[in-house]
Automatic annotation (TrEMBL):
Localization (cell): Mitochondrion matrix
Top EC category: transferase
Protein name (Swiss-Prot/TrEMBL): Dihydrolipoamide acetyltransferase component of pyruvate dehydrogenase complex
GO molecular function, one term: dihydrolipoamide branched chain acyltransferase activity
Major location category of this protein: mitochondrion
Cofactor: (R)-lipoate
One GO CC term, this protein: cytosol
């Protein structure tokens, strides 16, 4: 046994000493706050490494079925002596996107006592309409978790405390491994991991997943205990619920005869806002303080519908990409609407990039990612970019870059319902457009004949602190010209 807290002597890098059979170790004369003791004969299936640093002696054991062998218990024990050095490092929530001040913690991947390495996943958070995985910047042991699942965390606040080693040299003692032992270690299977029980569960036996996934499962009538979790440590993800074989309605249980169902009178429990809904509340509170002007008019879509029909054999497209591109062309002529105001609204900065946000309805709520640099995209490129954003949004894979940096927004809630909409501006943007539902109405054509015509009501809301009504009206007039003459959009013509 080596003296407690001391790795005896200084040896050349090539010097070797046998500890257990064929096990070998190299050391460079460092102090250690621990002791080594000769262990009993190791189990045949054990595969172990003993790490000695300046602050601790740590055992890492990998045994068949993941069960620690009694042969190694107590082999490496801590001691208060020896001058070991460690510190508690607060792990702060960094700024993850432009303008994002707080996030919701959706899921934790670590708990107190877990050892993490750099770039290991710590938790998953939901920011301003995006889901982000937070990774560790430190290697060490988690000593405290500051935020429960579902709570709000502000940028700069502490998520966890991690005990890290200061200037620790690592000495490795590795048990001899033959080919059979290595093969056994590669085939580790937990005893509980059977086909009848393949989800991660908490201490109460509940399937581990996020509240959003539980809500989707409840809406679809899916039993989470019957779902194979593909997330970290067997967690059930939203993607696991998308299979058609899982979309079965919940069984209906008939009420027993003579036992009528009754509902107790009284107040119901409040359901807290989470995720996109909570972020929407904060955004709309800020939007409500904006002095807003709104202008609305009808747009004739006859030529646009005809062009879309002609293109359909080669390009599957809705009318929305045309409307987005028309917005970019009109913004080129009226850049003030694509500007960002200073904090005190005494000045503004025109944005060269047309990053146009489009609202997308998802199972988790309404989200507004933006298409970057629309002014540089062809119609085909724009269609592809919008399709990619929609796929990411529906699968909850949007990144902070997808939802930040927007300069202008189009709301297309008319695809659900609504002839005329009054949109709310999303600060710090200065304007937003709202597209009503396309409907066929009787209208007079150029020859004064009454014809069935596709029309749409469109509204534009603008921040009256920077934009005046005449500027917005001229923008609307140019936008309407592009939409009613879509060949100008294809030719990318500036009016």
């Amino acid at each position: 046994m080596l003296p407690a807290g001391v790795l005896a002597g200084r040896a050349a890098r090539s010097q070797r000493r046998d500890v257990i059979g064929a096990a070998r170790w190299w050391f460079r004369g460092r102090k250690c706050a621990g002791t080594f003791a000769r262990p009993p004969a190791p189990d045949g299936n054990d595969r172990r490494r003993y790490h000695v640093t300046s602050s601790s002696c740590e055992l890492r054991l990998c045994a068949r079925n993941g069960i620690a062998s009694p042969a190694v218990k107590g082999y490496c024990s801590s001691s208060s002596g020896g001058g070991g050095r460690s510190k508690i490092q607060p792990f702060l929530l960094a700024d993850i996107g432009e303008g994002i001040k707080e996030v919701t913690v959706k899921e934790w991947y670590v708990k107190v006592g877990d050892r993490v390495s750099e770039f290991d996943d710590i938790c998953e958070v939901e920011s301003d309409k995006a889901t982000v995985t937070i990774t560790s910047r430190y290697a060490g042991v988690v000593t405290k978790v500051y935020c429960e699942t579902g709570c709000m965390a502000r940028v700069g606040s502490v998520l966890v405390d991690i005990e890290v080693e200061e200037d620790g040299e690592t000495v490795v003692v590795a048990a001899a491994e033959d080919a059979e032992q290595r093969a056994a270690a590669d085939e580790l299977v937990a005893p509980e991991a059977t086909t009848a029980n393949y989800q991660a569960r908490d201490n109460e036996g509940k399937v581990l997943t996020t509240p959003a996934v539980r809500r989707i499962a409840a809406e679809k009538g899916i039993d989470l205990t019957a779902v194979r979790g593909t997330g970290k440590q067997g967690r059930v993800l939203k993607e696991d619920l998308l299979g058609p074989e899982l979309s079965t309605p919940a069984p209906v249980v008939a009420a027993a005869v003579g036992s009528p169902q009754t509902t107790e009178a009284g107040d119901q429990d409040f359901i807290p806002l989470t995720g996109y809904s909570k972020i929407m509340r904060n955004t709309m509170e800020a939007s409500n303080k904006i002095p807003t002007m709104v202008i609305t008019d009808e747009v004739n879509l006859t030529r646009l519908v005809e062009l879309k029909t002609q293109m359909s054999p080669w390009l599957k497209v809705t009318i929305l990409p045309f409307l987005v591109k028309a917005t970019s062309l009109a913004l080129t002529r009226h850049p003030l609407l694509n500007s960002t105001p200073s904090p005190d609204f005494s000045s503004y900065r025109p944005n060269r990039s047309h990053n146009i946000g489009v609202a997308i309805d998802t199972p988790l709520g309404l989200v507004v990612p933006n298409i970057k640099n629309v002014q540089t995209l062809s119609l085909v490129d724009l269609v592809r970019s919008m399709a990619q954003l929609r796929t990411k949004a529906e699968n909850g894979k949007l990144t902070p870059a997808d939802v930040t940096g927007g300069t202008f927004t189009l709301s297309n809630m008319g695809t659900i319902m609504g002839s005329t909409l009054t949109p709310k501006i999303l600060p710090p943007e200065l304007a937003i457009g709202a597209l009503g539902q396309m409907k066929y109405r009787p209208r007079y054509d150029s020859q004064e004949r009454l014809v069935r015509t596709p029309v749409m009501n469109v509204s534009w809301a603008a921040d009256h602190r920077i934009l005046d009504g005449a500027t917005v009206a001229r923008f609307f007039k140019d936008w309407k010209t592009y939409v009613e003459n879509p060949s100008l959009i294809l030719a990318n013509v500036e009016l």
